[in-house]
Amino acid sequence: MYEWDFVATLADMDLLLLGLWNTIQVFFLALVFGVPLGLGLALGRMSRILVLSQLCSFIIEFFRTTPPLVQLFWFFFALPILISVQMTPFVASVLTFSIQSSAFFAEIFRGGINSIDKGQWEAAKAIGMTRKSSLTRIILPQAVKRMIPAFAERSIELLKTTTLISTVSYADLMFQANELASKSFRPLEVYTVVAIMYFFLILIFSQLTILLEYRLAKTGEGTLR
Amino acid sequence: MDYNWDFASVFVYWNVLAMGLWATFKLFIICSTLGLGGGLFMGMLRYSKTRWISYPAMLYVEVFRNTPVLVQIIWFFFALPVVTGIEVSPMMAAVLGITLNTIAFSAEVFRGGIQSIEREQWEAGKAIGMSYAQSMRRVILPQALKRMLPPLTSRGIEVFKMSTLASVVAYPETLQQAKLIASYEYNPIEAYTIVALMFFIVLLPLVQLTYMLERRFGKSDA
Q1: Structure-derived torsion over alpha carbons of residues A33, A38, A44, A45, reported in degrees to the nearest 10
Q2: What is the predicted pLDDT for the residue at A1?
Q3: CATH number for the A24-172 domain, one of 3.90.1310.10, 2.40.110.10, 1.10.10.10, 1.10.3720.10?
Q4: How high is the pLDDT of residue B202?
Q5: Is B222 a residue whose pLDDT tops 80?
Q6: In this complex, do A187 and B82 lie within 8 Å of one another by their Cβ atoms?
Q7: Cβ neighbour number for residue A62 with a 10 Å cutoff
Q8: Which residue from A minimizes the CA distance to B5?
Q9: Per-domain residue ranges for chain A?
Q10: Which of B71, B189, B198 to mutate to test the interface with A (most CBs of A within 10 A)?
Q11: Least CA distance to A205: which residue of chain B?
């Protein structure tokens, strides 16, 4: 029977915590850039200008149907040669995951906006609002509330996908785990601890979103019944 | 932007990529079959009214949904052999990680689908003398499957994309083969562009199919 020994893993916990912090950084930045970009893509896709809407559709479909790992490799290994700039793992990761998640966020935005009753648009028009101001004042505030569950699910998906950046040697939690596992010769303990860390990180995040949903449900505007 | 694209240097190795694509498909078929089958089973356990059946199932689902697949694959590859003493091949680690993950996700889809069927359907089944298993198989599942079709197809697409993670443990699937070509020929741009296009071409029809399914089955019960 194997003897578990967590001492070596716990002694180097600061390495793992540093990795966790780096993971959270990339996750946060990807959200900050990905959400507005997603809104832009969604509006572009719903635009009446055919060229714009087809271009946005193509971008969305392309990033939804290609594996994130392939995209990451492309941005890390291929893009720097094309535009001849130095690419760091950090920039490549943030770039990849912002664009990748924006494609998914775009579909959530589109679904949310489409789910709002057409009467709302008409009512806004009736009181003299332009298309733009009815979107920002009437439609989006209602749509965003309905989108929160889908939005939370996508963010959790994004958080899990950030493990891929370990493959381009960015020192996220997964990468630190690989380092520590080969340093301490204790892969079992290291990877188990890391799995538990991810589990709680994601659990906390998902509980927070459930809390948010309940709050919205209380004001009668949420998705929970 | 005066880069000279040289796709010929990738196409020379078309058989290497074809082998990779075949390995990707193999992984996809194994993982999606086992994953969806296991997911149906796990979903029913999760739906069970007996607590000591539904609680362990819930624990399983939450653990695998709340940890990244990459961590799971790496765990099975590096940690499992230490516990069990069994040699785990890259293929096996990838299959284990992706399948167990897919079981957890599809279990939730199945459970949601079964729960979405009105209780009257169960009562009607009971009224004409069907047992639990009979009503589930003949009345509930056929209706629930229709509603579950769109989310299940997107799960399938996810599995196909997830298969690239097997490259991390050096299983020779499409991305791993492209890495090989890129390191031989120093042509990462062409190699990775072609891989991206390969996935796009394979998956685009599938994505279109989910849109169609959503339009047909998503809203009404027609």
Answers
A1: 160
A2: 65
A3: 1.10.3720.10
A4: 93
A5: no
A6: yes
A7: 17
A8: A82
A9: 24-172
A10: B71
A11: B66
